[in-house]
Amino acid sequence: MSKPLIGVSTYLEPSASWGVWNLPAALLPAGYHRLVQRAGGLAAMLPPDEDPAAAARIVSRLDGLVISGGPDVEPVRYGAEVDPRTGPPARERDAWELALIDAALASGTPLLGICRGHQLLNVFLGGTLVQHLDGHAGRPGVFDHHEVKPVPDTLLAEILPDPLSVPTFHHQAVARLGEGLVPSAYSADDGTVEAVELPDVEGFVLGVQWHPEAGDDVRIMRALVEAAAG
C-alpha cells in the first residue's frame, strides 16, 4: 500500500544562511518531516503561494495536511487591536495557511494544526486569541515542557488517553473558541486550552498547542497519517 502524502506548511523568510549562501528561503524545522516519515507518511513542504486560490488545487493532491508552528497570527484576523507584545505580522503565511485550512475543511482532508496552526484553525472558525501569557515557553530557542490533560471522550483522548508532558514554546493561546470547536486538552498548570477539535464533521480535524515534532511521541502524527490513509 502506498504511503499517504502529508503536506506541511512552511516559514517564508527574507534571509537564511547555509554554506556560502544567504538568500530568501522557505524553511521548515526538520522535526516536522521526520515526524511525518516516522508515522508512516510521505512529507511535502508547502511554502506560501502568492495566489491563495492555489491552496485548493494543492490540497486536492494531498492525503493529509499539517499547519506548522511559527509567528503570531496578525490580530486583525480576529478583530483585535495589536498588543505591544505581539510579534510582527506574517501576512503571506496568514493568507496562505488560512486558505489551506479552508480547502482542507471543504474537502474533508485530514487536518492537524500545530501551535500557530492550532491558533489559525480557531481564528478561521471565528475564534479569538489571547495575545500574551507567561509560563508556556523556555528561554529563546529552547522548548519548555509542561503537563496537559486530555478531555475524556474526545478524538485527542482516543489518541492520548492519559495526561502527558509535552514540548511547548508559545505566548499566545485560544481565547474564544471558534464555531463548532470543542476543547480536547487543557494545561494542568493554568487551564489554558491545549487542543481543539471539530467533532461534528466527518474526518480528522485537530489542533494542538504544543510541538509534537520536538519530541519523541509519534501518536498524534500517526493518527493523522492513518486517517489520511483512509
Question: Could you explain the architecture of this structure?
Answer:
The chain is α/β, with parallel strands linked by helices and 230 residues long. 25% of the residues lie in helices and 28% in strands. It contains 6 helices and 13 strands. It has helices spanning 30-38, 54-59, 91-107, 116-124, 155-159, 219-229, and strands spanning 5-9, 11-18, 21-27, 42-46, 64-67, 111-114, 129-130, 144-150, 164-168, 173-174, 182-187, 193-197, 205-208. The strands form 3 sheets. A 9-stranded mixed β-sheet has the order 4-1-5-6-13-12-11-8-9, with helices on both faces. Strand 5 (64-67), helix 3 and strand 6 form a beta-alpha-beta unit. The protein is globular and about 45 Å long.
Following the backbone from N to C, one meets helices and strands in this order, namely: EEEHEHEHEHEEHEEEEEH
What class, by secondary structure content? alpha/beta
- Report the average pLDDT across residues: 95
Total of DSSP H or I helical runs spanning 4+ residues: 6
Helix content: 10-25%
Largest sheet: 9 strands, mixed
Beta-strand portion reads 25-35%
Beta strand count: 13
Q: Radius of gyration, rounded?
A: 16 Å
User: Between the first and last Cα atoms, what is the distance in angstroms?
Assistant: 11 Å
Shape: globular
